[in-house]
Write a structure and sequence with these properties.
Blueprint: H1 2-26, H2 29-40, E1 43-44, E2 65-67, E3 73-79, E4 83-85, E5 100-104, E6 107-111, E7 124-126, E8 131-134, E9 148-150, E10 155-159, E11 172-174, E12 179-182, E13 196-198, E14 203-207, E15 220-222, E16 227-229
Bound molecules: 2-acetamido-2-deoxy-beta-D-glucopyranose (6 copies).
Length: about 240
């Protein structure tokens, strides 16, 4: 009985030790494995991802990958590399230190997964210019650090989720050139740091919400080529732009 008691006391200690050691070993490796798994799901006709080859080496020397001094992947920036495939094979939960995810002008298609909220350190998200479709995931509102959101010239549809109002660090939001419908959510007025807003060339309707006047840092706003009606709200005069 006393032995069992001793063992039970020991178990939390082992768990604590493992808890301390596992992330240190995994730093970089879990990310490398996730990137290789994603690569396997893609067609890489320009062989842009050739350097992504060895799961036991650090991904920090791979093309398009940047790391912190501690070997955590902080940026994944793949622009115009013709990688063709979806985001469903990318395990976002493997990248807790990722600050910048820019996958622009490739041949990605399919939806932007809800699992994107696992990128808890994300500051910049850019996916311009490819065939990504479906709605803007509601879970995006969980990305508390997000300052730059660039989802222009995709094939996004559905409404702008009200959860966008939770992105209180947002400075720039570009959603132009999609098929977004419905009203501009009033929650947008909560984005007090937003300086640049581009919702042009969508199918948005209704009036421009007066809450836009609460965005005191706003310097640029493009709303052209939608079905918006009514007048610019008086409240806009408190914004920097006027
Ligand atoms: C993978 O990387 C490890 C560590 O850098 C190295 O020891 C191993 O030889 C490499 N394997 C291949 C197949 O390149
Ligand atoms: C990534 O690393 C490259 C090469 O070291 C550097 O030129 C670039 O500025 C870095 N980008 C980011 C976003 O840190
Ligand atoms: C990407 O791959 C899909 C499926 O294999 C194919 O139908 C599509 O044409 C490819 N896109 C481009 C731009 O090559
Ligand atoms: C992301 O986190 C959610 C919980 O917020 C979890 O249900 C989901 O499986 C995660 N996605 C991935 C790709 O790990
Ligand atoms: C995010 O936004 C929704 C809708 O506005 C709200 O109900 C929810 O409480 C918000 N969540 C957080 C964590 O702020
Ligand atoms: C806009 O600001 C006013 C005054 O500060 C506040 O009463 C109102 O709730 C705000 N609206 C939004 C949508 O944040």
């Amino acid at each position: 009985m006393t032995h069992l008691h001793g063992l039970l006391l020991l178990l939390p200690c082992i768990a604590l030790l493992l808890g301390a050691v596992i992330p240190a070993i995994a730093g970089g490796q879990r990310e490398a494995e996730a990137l290789l798994k994603w690569k396997a799901s893609l067609t890489d006709s320009d062989a842009s991802l050739t350097s992504w080859s060895n799961a036991t080496s650090s991904p920090c020397n791979w093309a398009f990958v940047n790391c912190s001094s501690t070997g955590d992947v902080t940026a994944l920036i793949i622009i115009n590399a013709r990688i063709n495939g979806t985001l469903s094979g990318l395990d976002f939960s493997a990248f807790p230190h990722l600050e910048e995810l820019v996958l622009e002008q490739n041949d990605l298609y399919g939806t932007i997964p809800e699992g994107i909220d696992n990128l808890t350190s994300l500051i910049s998200l850019g996916m311009h210019g490819q065939r990504l479709s479906g709605p803007i995931p509601r879970s995006i509102g969980q990305l508390k650090q997000l300052a730059h959101l660039q989802l222009a010239y995709l094939e996004l549809s559905g409404t702008i989720p009200i959860e966008i109002g939770n992105l209180t660090s947002l400075q720039e939001m570009q959603l132009s050139g999609n098929g977004l419908t419905g009203l501009i959510p009033t929650a947008i007025g909560k984005l007090e740091k937003l300086s640049s807003l581009d919702l042009s060339s969508n199918n948005l309707k209704g009036s421009i919400p007066s809450q836009i006047g609460n965005m005191t840092e706003l310097e640029m706003m493009y709303l052209a080529s939608n079905y918006l009606e009514g007048e610019l709200p008086d409240t806009l005069s408190s914004s920097k732009a006027w």
